[in-house]
Amino acid sequence: MTTMTGGPQTTETAPPTPANPFERLDDAPQEQQRRIIGYLDTVAAHPEIQRMRSAAFELFAPTAGERLLDVGCGAGEVSRQLAARVGTTGSVTAVDRSAEAISVAQSRHDGSSVTYMVGDITALDFPDGHFDGVRCERVLQHLPDPDRAIKEMIRVTRPGGRVCVIDTDWTSSVGDGFDHLAEVLEQFPFPHPSAGRTARARMVKAGLPVTTALPVTLRFTTPDDAAVVVPLFDETPLRTCVQPELVEPFLDSVRQSAERGDFLFAFTMWISLGRVETV
Ligand SMILES: C[S@@+](CC[C@H](N)C(=O)[O-])C[C@H]1O[C@@H](n2cnc3c(N)ncnc32)[C@H](O)[C@@H]1O
User: Fold this and answer.
1) Domains along the chain?
2) Beta carbons within 10 angstroms of residue 2's beta carbon
3) Residue 40 CA to ligand 1 centre (angstroms)
4) Fewer CB within 10 Å, N or C, the chain?
5) Which element (helix H / strand E) includes 213?
6) How many CA within 13 A on the CB side of residue 154?
7) Tell me: the pLDDT tens digits for 171-185?
């Protein structure tokens, strides 16, 4: 991460960054892949993300002996936490489209009941009804076809089992103390900025009529803290995605806000949990 308030300025001469490296992480330059895995780690360690994840754990309620799927698992941190809950009588399958992410996740294997696999959320290599529960965090927003992914997660979940989708609603972003947020958001290429907010409706439409949705609002009081989680405040993606004539006024305004100590930013993530109907 390149910080906004005093951290090193980026001097990279790497090839141009693909608009959304999360969609095809393995196609990104090596250096960017490493940076993205590092981003997943710092995000996972952020207290606001941990607060959101603990709310998601409570709703998903994994129990001993269950067979669970964590799809779009990244470096597998949550997969291992799930494995601690299901114990030796249960199992967790951690799937990601990126071979690099799976290789990192595998290198962190802690001996628990997690199996790591490369796979695509829109074409899962499991039979119908295979899992007691499926979990998917911050993946839908990167997909060309989120509805197809939801259908597939439902397909591999047994009747009575649950599907838990956790995603961001970037359109809920609000800030105070600085200017140009709306314009920067408009230029930022989030493929599905409202993925979190629309997940429940997508799940209901796909055949999970009993879907609950819990909003968790994350808040940040310094730009450096926000940059850990929010790409708009990290200079590297900001400079890649936003027009230079907007970047400078935005950065100036954010820096001045940091100096005054009045910076404030918040956005909402949604945890949507649906049960597959029993027939
Ligand atoms: C923002 S990361 C989230 C990772 C992890 N769920 C977490 O919360 O740390 C998005 C992940 O989705 C994966 N992904 C993107 N498209 C995918 C697809 N079609 N099938 C499976 N995983 C995919 C990416 O490789 C990346 O690891």
Assistant:
1) 25-170+191-215+269-275 (3.40.50.150)
2) 17
3) 10
4) C
5) strand 211-220
6) 22
7) 999 999 999 999 999
